Amino acid sequence: MSSFFDLFDPTASSSSSEATDLNGNSTSSISSSSNTSNDDDEDDMFLSYEELLIKKGGSQKRSVAIPPRLQNHAPFVQHQQYSSSCSPVIDFDLDILPPEPQLGNIEYKLKLINPSKQRFEHLVTQMKWRLREGNGEAIYEIGVSDSGQLHGLSDADMTCSLHTLNQMARKLDASTSVLRRKALSAGRSVVEVLVRKIPDDQHNIEVRVAVLGGADAGKSTLLGVLTQGEFDNGRGRARLNMFRHMHEIQTGRTSCISHETLGFDQQGNVINYKYNEMMTAEEISDRSTKLVTFMDLAGHRRYLKTTVQALSGYSPHHAILVVGSGSTISNMTQEHLAIVHALDMPFSIVVTKCDLIPPDDVLFELKTLLTAVGYRKVPYLIANEDDVLNANAHQNVEQIVPIFCVSNVTGDGLDLLTKYLYVLSPGISNSEKERLEQEPIEFQIDEIFKVAEVGLVVGGLLCKGVITENVPVRIGPQLDGTFLPVTVQTIHRNKAPCRVVRAGQSASLSFYPGDDMPPLRRGMVILPDYEEEDTAYGSYFFQARVSVLFHATSIYEGFQTTMHIGSIRQTAVIVGIMGQTDGIRTNQTASVMFRFVRHPEYVRPGMRVLFREGTSKGIGKVTQVFPLNQKVK
């Protein structure tokens, strides 16, 4: 599997009767044309992106070639380098797949015809394990041997195998849906099936997606089209439902975090506000087996701190970087990309406004940026549904970057983006999730509201543990570092009431009116109501192992920076750098002692640190904390 921007090797095409197109799909026409004439390549010098798609694809699967005038545009990622560093590619257009992976949620089955009772129970246990690895989702390749050979099955055998697979899924209260089918010779075929099981304590599988990019890229419009089910009129009508304040409507710029949901049923059909006239957010959640929760983030530099806090505090599973066609990649877009990369977050790119200007120029700008030394990603243009499934197979390794070209006015490319969201996985296994649920409660507060007849309501992410209604907890830290007891009254998720929230889920909590509520602020946490008060305390001082991503000169003691740790956002000052007398520079790592300037925060070892000040950026992990009830040695 190679990228959209890879070049064909002339020597390879002359020695092989069949080449591979730029998205890793087998094509014989390219190699044969290379042995006859180069007239087509000369003509392609003057073709646009859309003309190349039409000419190279026609009614068949589209394969995009790079015109010679653009082949020297920055260094290219070689196919051999990419394939050696990534996990197996599930590409049906190749005659053979990689060997079956031992770990993960992908399973090969040559056939499933009339298994014995003992064999059937073994298959069910195996499916249960694959579902746990994929957080409730597993991919089955039917007609494929463990070595990856595509043998295929006859129609009768395939029908029987799919029936057995459905019985296995029903045994686990799971559902199946066919993703794609490949016809082989002699009437045989291979089928790829998605098996999905919703956890017993949940209504659906949820994926949090952060949408970011520069101002005027079309982020809010894109989300408005996806969640409302109606195309934009070209003047920003679709984005109005995403705005929360009057000044956002007047300026057309998002200034705060906006949440919206997109649902899918078992067959992959979209469930949004256009599903019926009376559809509400609660009904979307109830009807969906897969729920994508979008966070519309601000693109203007003035609101960068809000965007960074959302990425750090809500810990989205995936990020979508939106870029407008016809414009250069702005400094703000590059800033967002750098932050996402620093947080090790998988991401994809959506190029909007393709109905106005062909995306040729911006695609090659993205290619240059993504393949640079700091990123070394592989851009992968999505042209059809097979590309969607191939790209999704690489989300776990975080090496491939899918690129979608869409139009919010005509709807071009939105079906592929929707398909991608349907198969997108949260990227965390059920075993890891269950481990987090067994740990003590830690709820990070990111938003605070005051609701009439309810009182104070806090919103945020539950990092660990399980919270239920009427459970006593402690909230803090206060100015003296202590935590005060309160009781959770009600819980809301996705704009709907619920009784329980588990690790990895975002929610809003209200408290009993009779509780003596302390002054609340963003960055506070909710912890279990321990009997001993000394078990949780705020800290001014903490030590972290940090790496400087960029700084113009050197960082010394006394350097002040904005520190992001989960939902915490506060100025901190460096009071000590261990083992470095001449400061720390770009790409250097050191153990640093920080002190919060304003008030204590709850920090624990292992938490991820992101600090920034102007163009300076750094990342790291907390190694030691010094609570206020302890003296710094």
Describe this protein with a few key phrases.
about 625 residues, alpha+beta, six-stranded antiparallel barrel, 29 strands, about 25% helix, P-loop_NTPase, Tr-type G domain-containing protein, EF-Tu_GTPase
What does this protein look like?
The structure is a single chain. Helix 14 packs parallel to helix 15. It contains 16 helices and 29 strands. The strands form 6 sheets. Strands 9-8-10-7-11-12-14-13 form an 8-stranded mixed β-sheet, with helices on both faces. A 6-stranded antiparallel β-barrel has the order 15-16-22-19-18-23. Strands 24-27-26-25-28-29 form a 6-stranded antiparallel barrel. A hairpin with a 2-residue loop joins strand 25 and strand 26. The model is unreliable at 1-89 (pLDDT under 50). The radius of gyration is 26 Å and the shape is globular. It has 633 residues and is α+β, with helices and mostly antiparallel strands.
What's the gist of this structure?
The chain is α+β, with helices and mostly antiparallel strands.
Low-confidence stretches: 1-89
- The whole-number mean of residue pLDDT values reads 80
Helix content: 10-25%
Query: DSSP helix count?
Result: 16
Number of strands: 29
Biased composition (Polar residues): 11-24
InterPro entries: EF-Tu_GTPase, GTPBP1-like, P-loop_NTPase, T_Tr_GTP-bd_dom, Transl_B-barrel_sf, Transl_elong_EF1A/Init_IF2_C
Organism: Aedes albopictus (Asian tiger mosquito)
Region (Disordered): 1-42
